[in-house]
Amino acid sequence: MSLSIGIVGLPNVGKSTLFKALTNKQVDIQNYPFTTIDPNVGVVEVPDERVDKLAELSHSKKKIYATVDFTDIAGLVKGASQGEGLGNKFLANIREVDAIAQVVRAFEDSNITHIHNRIDPADDISIINTELVLADLETVSKRIISAGSTAKGNNLEAKKAKTDLPILEKFKNHLNANEIISELELNKDETALANELNLLTAKKFIYTINVSESQLEQKWQPDDKLKAAIGDAPYAVICNTLELSISEMKPEEKNALLKELGLPESGLDKLTKIGYRTLNLLTFLTTGEDETRAWTAHIGDPIPKAARAIHTDFEKLFIRAEVINWQTLLDASSWGKAREHGTLRTVGRDYVINEGDVVEIKI
Ligand SMILES: Nc1nc2c(ncn2[C@@H]2O[C@H](COP(=O)(O)OP(=O)(O)OP(=O)(O)O)[C@@H](O)[C@H]2O)c(=O)[nH]1
Ligand SMILES: [Mg+2]
């Protein structure tokens, strides 16, 4: 299981700059709108000191980090659903992502063109959200037509279409009021249908507010208007050009610069953490001579379910597991010593996996 994030925003706001900082891939970054036409796709390893330290402890031959997939697409403009700018067909490239990261420009720089010649992040958010709503409305309306004709039959598909139709109407009414689907209270069937249709506004949103380096140093904060536009979604205040420079630095240089700027971590590290938290994900680990590896599970997963990440059969074949917190294992200096100290626990199927657990699954 790998986390995937689509990067969305107005043209020329710094989406590809963020993408390049994240992935270190060579992508086109230019000071004009619609630089990106075809999507950029990249996989990012999530830096994790736990993997490094445990690999040292176990003398592992390989280290494998958790990964996040990022997709950087063209800029959306007002009227994209009507064909303005590059239209909105390219949104198909992010239909399958888990979360949408919206890049919003707050940085002041008269040298960098803003397509509306003003800096108003709250208003930009409302333009983008409206375009995402309109794209979903298109999807839902198409499905209403096809479900309408399927429902006339007398088979299983017709039965599903009949249950889907009132839900689709509910989605349509909501979208017509320019509201995003994730703000609706959904039951199980409704959630399933929203996922089946890959509705963009049913996905988790993360806002990345692109500020200048000086705004960052002055501890820039969103005003009430922007806070209202963001709503309950998580956000990170980032300087994308600074992140790009940091991403090209050696770790020591990076740490020195962050310290100088009074930042506890880089914007990218913050963004990854937000992504994990927003999607209710956690990391657990396995370690041995062959490899030390970080795995992704959902918060609240019982251990057999989490073990599916390692091997799909593990959920069924699970008998018991040995579990220890990664730091406790490091302190004990070995698996054997941890067992002697009694800090290594044997757990059964009911055990709920925790962030930072190191596990050995017995099947
Ligand atoms: N001053 C400043 N300029 C930035 C920042 N982030 C991006 N830029 C500049 O803004 C311009 C556009 O950046 P891109 O990353 O190409 O923007 P984009 O959103 O991918 O643009 P499109 O692909 O055209 O939609 C480039 O000239 C960047 O150097 C920032 O934080 N501060
Ligand atoms: Mg771009």
User: What is the percent of helical residues?
Assistant: 25-40%
Q: Report the sheet-strand fraction.
A: 15-25%
Through-space gap between termini: 21 Å
Question: Which ligands occur here?
Answer: guanosine-5'-triphosphate, magnesium ion
- The rounded Rg comes to 23 Å
* Spatial order of the strands forming the largest sheet: 2-4-1-5-6-7
Structural class: alpha/beta
Feature tags:
363 residues, alpha/beta, Rossmann fold, Ubiquitin-like (UB roll), three-stranded mixed sheet, 14 helices, binds magnesium ion
Secondary structure elements and their pairing?
Blueprint: E1 3-8, H1 15-23, E2 40-45, H2 49-58, E3 62-64, E4 67-72, E5 99-105, H3 121-150, H4 156-176, H5 188-196, E6 204-210, H6 213-217, H7 224-230, E7 235-238, H8 240-247, H9 251-260, H10 267-278, E8 281-287, E9 291-298, H11 303-306, H12 314-317, E10 320-325, H13 326-332, H14 335-341, E11 345-347, E12 357-362
Parallel strand pairs: 1-4, 1-5, 3-9, 5-6, 6-7
Antiparallel strand pairs: 2-4, 8-9, 10-11, 10-12
